Structure formats: structure tokens, C-alpha cells
Amino acid sequence: MKIKKILVSQPKPSSEKSPYYDIAEKYGVNIVFRPFIKVEGLTSKEFRQQKISIPEYTAVIFTARTAIDHFFRLCEELRVTIPETMKYFCTTEAIALYLQKYIIYRKRKIFFGNSGKLDDLVPSLLKHSGEKFLFPVSDVHKEQTSVLEKHKINYTKAIMYRTVSNDFGPDEPFDYDMLLFFSPSGIKSLTKNFPDFKQDDIKIGTFGPTTAQAVRDAGLRLDIEAPSPGAPSMTAALDLFLKEQSKKK
Fold it and tell me: What residue ranges do the domains of the chain occupy?
């Protein structure tokens, strides 16, 4: 079966230079960006149920821009004034720079790692071991926090947002030849939206081992898996797959 229409379960790229556009032109396929999941913030009432008082903390750990948005949103809703002395520890420089949306960027109170992993932040956290850290996360957070326990970092997880299914409308067409997923939540949303889903000739691709396993657990066939040898990204894996398909004509 020739692949003509591909669903990428992510938001549309902000840049025209996305590799997906190059692939669409190269192979003459229609690529549609349509997330299966969306993020929604906890209400201030729901957050209060965790019995966490934000003013008691002197530092915050951020692993995502979404966490920053919901932290400051909840502070506003709860009428919490964040002191000038608050310190921020981010897993990447890009996340740290995003703080400028909410605060004046001062290097003496903002710290960041390079790898995107918590391990990379440990030296900075240990230098400020006297702080009391708040760690905003989602309800399905993937962060491996064992490294924080190992180094006896004084921190508290605070669920501030959740991942929910981005349901398809009754008149929304579902006529795709290929589906690309990036999280187990996307697979859950697929089976929720289409409980009678039959894969047949539809190809399924995933990024990351946990998403690949979610496909297998759902009893579906996995056709593309990234990262893999020669395909470090989803776009590289897609390019390879379509190249092989075009040879079979």
C-alpha cells in the first residue's frame, strides 16, 4: 500500500524549516499534525489538595517549559508572591531562558544543565543543598528522581498539570495510512477514541522504547521504531521507511 497521508501526533512545527516538510515534498505525502493528547493545568482547588505551600520553598526545579507556565499560573491564582530570592534550576539552557517570560533573568539565581537530565543538575543542586526545592511535574511525569534521593536533595514533587486525551470529533476524518506516536499516552488516546480500531495496512511508528512497548501492549503492529541504527530521530526513521517503500514500486 502506498503511503499518502501521515498523522504526526505532535503540534504543528513553528518553523517552516521542519524536516517533516522536506519529507512531504520529497515523497509527495500529506503530513497532518494532530496531537492525540493535550496538557491541562490543575485548578487551584485541586492543587491545594496536595497540601503544598509554595512560599515554604526557596528553589524550583524545572524540566519543561510547560512546568514553568503552570507554576507561575498557579502562583497567580493562589495569590502567591514569589520572592526575589527564589532560585531556579533547569535541565537545559532553553528552559532557563524561557523563565524570562515571567521573571527578570539574573544569572546568580538561575542554573541549568546541558544534557536535559537531572543528573547534570546535581552539582548545582549540591552547591545549594541548604535550599528547599519544589519540583513541578505532570501526573504522568517520566523524570527519574532516584538521583535526587541518592544525593539527599531536599525536594517535594508538586503535580501542577495533567495529560489528557485530545478527543476526535464525530465529523473529524480518520483516513491515515500511517500514525506516528511519541508517548504511551498517545496510544492510550488512540484506543480510547477508536475502541474498535483495526490496524490492517495502517503503519505505526514510535519514538522511544516506552512508546514502542505501549504499541505492543495494545496488540498493535510496530512498523517504524526510532531511535534506531542510522535513524536517531523520528524524521530520519520516516525518511528511511519511505525510501524503502518507494523502491518497492
Answer: 40-159
pLDDT digit string, tens, across residues 126-136: 999 999 999 99
Cβ neighbour number for residue 82 with a 10 Å cutoff: 17
| 59-62 and 178-181 beta bridge pairing | unpaired
- CA dihedral sign of residues 86, 87, 91, 96: positive
Q: What is the DSSP letter of 133?
A: E
More confident site: 214 or 114: 214
Rounded to whole angstroms, the Cα distance separating 160 from 157 reads 9
Please give the grid coordinates belonging to residue 218: 495494545
For the domain bounded by 40-159, which CATH number is listed? 3.40.50.10090
- Looking at residue 119, what DSSP letter applies? G
H/E stretch holding 155 reads strand 155-165
**Among 58, 82, 79, 64, which Cα is nearest to 160's?**
64
Q: What tens digit of pLDDT does each residue of 226-236 get? A: 999 889 999 99
For residue 83, give every residue at least 6 positions away whose Cβ sits within 8 Å of its Cβ, in sequence order, or none.
none
Q: Over pLDDT 90: what percentage of the chain?
A: 75
